[in-house]
Specification:
By secondary structure, this protein is mostly helical. It has 15 helices and 3 strands. About 4% of the residues have low confidence.
């Protein structure tokens, strides 16, 4: 989620194959969205030139399903401790889990550590610019590879996160929300809307993402502040209510995720192995607690030792 250097606006690829008849074209969307971004983009550390490709990659791992305000302090601490992939690769994976803190979904910390090891071993410690090489790194999926290639290296890729998908669903497709999972049709539309030249395409990727994060939000869209409100297919249709499958909620209280978080908190704060009794105190229900602990072990986030002791993983 960085902000590539501002390019001149150019004509896009033909979006007809991905958008309904009568919907706005990429050509009509690019300039107003990019101009809005130039005026309204947040000053985030991973958007600054000094962040480099590693800073962009770290931010993309952390920002998955986690809001910016929670990521910022952990990101700053992470980059201060591990300014290059090789610095993280030298540490035990458990240290990555420890430093992840309460960001949630801690398997991301293990995946980021694994990517750092691979970058160090395969690419001399430099995050590769090639999309295929990025995609070949452990823990890197299509979205993250496209985001790093676009935001760090200014390349032309469709970067489809939840915010971008929502903007395209409303502005072009005319529906309130995108499907629960990214579809082939969404990918075709995103590719069709891409500007032809790389700098503009990279800027468009960042700008459309920011528009979804700040204006075209999930719960309280601010159409009066939207630079493309006059073209938005959903607004022009009268903002019809979502009539697709129910949107997934993100419950937390009482779930295995909460139990896992409490167990990991004990291990993160400990300076050595932790006895089973210390873990038993964090959750009252023994079956759920055991299931959560077994899941942490299976995911490689916790290492069981002899005599009922547990620790964060060393290998």
């Amino acid at each position: 989620m960085t902000a590539p250097t501002k390019p001149p606006h150019t004509s896009p690829a033909d979006p007809a194959s991905g958008s309904p008849s009568g919907s706005p074209s990429g050509e009509s969307l690019h300039a107003p969205v990019i101009d809005w971004f130039d005026e309204n983009a947040r000053d985030l550390p991973w958007r600054r030139p000094e962040a480099g490709a590693w800073g962009v990659m770290v931010s993309e791992f952390m920002l998955q399903q986690t809001p910016v305000n929670r990521v910022l302090p952990v990101y700053e601490q992470w980059l201060a401790r591990w300014p290059r992939p090789a610095d993280l690769a030298k540490e035990a994976p458990g240290e990555a889990v420890r430093a992840w803190g309460r960001l949630g979904y801690p398997r991301r910390a293990l995946r980021l550590h694994g990517a750092a090891v691979a970058i160090t071993e395969r690419h001399g410690g430099d995050v590769p610019a090639d999309h295929a090489q990025l995609l070949a790194l452990p823990g890197i999926g299509e979205y993250t590879a496209a985001a790093v290639a676009s935001f760090a290296y200014g390349q032309r890729h469709a970067v489809l996160d939840t915010n971008v998908r929502r903007v395209f669903a409303r502005a072009v497709t005319g529906v309130q929300y995108p499907p629960n999972a990214t579809t082939a049709a969404e990918r075709r539309l995103a590719r069709a809307l891409l500007p032809e030249d790389e700098p503009t395409a990279a800027r468009w990727a960042a700008a459309s993402m920011e528009l979804g994060a700040l204006v075209c939000t999930a719960k309280s869209e601010s159409c009066h502040r939207c630079p493309i409100a006059a073209q938005c297919a959903w607004r022009l249709a009268g903002k019809p209510e979502h009539d697709g499958p129910p949107r997934r909620g993100q419950t937390y209280a009482g779930t295995d995720r909460q139990v896992r978080g409490r167990l990991l908190a004990v291990l993160r704060e400990a300076h050595g192995p932790v006895p089973q009794a210390a873990l038993d105190r964090v959750w009252h229900e023994p079956v759920q607690r055991a299931r959560a602990l077994d899941g942490l072990v299976a995911d490689g986030l916790v290492e069981p030792l002899a005599d009922g002791l547990y620790r964060l993983p060393l290998t």
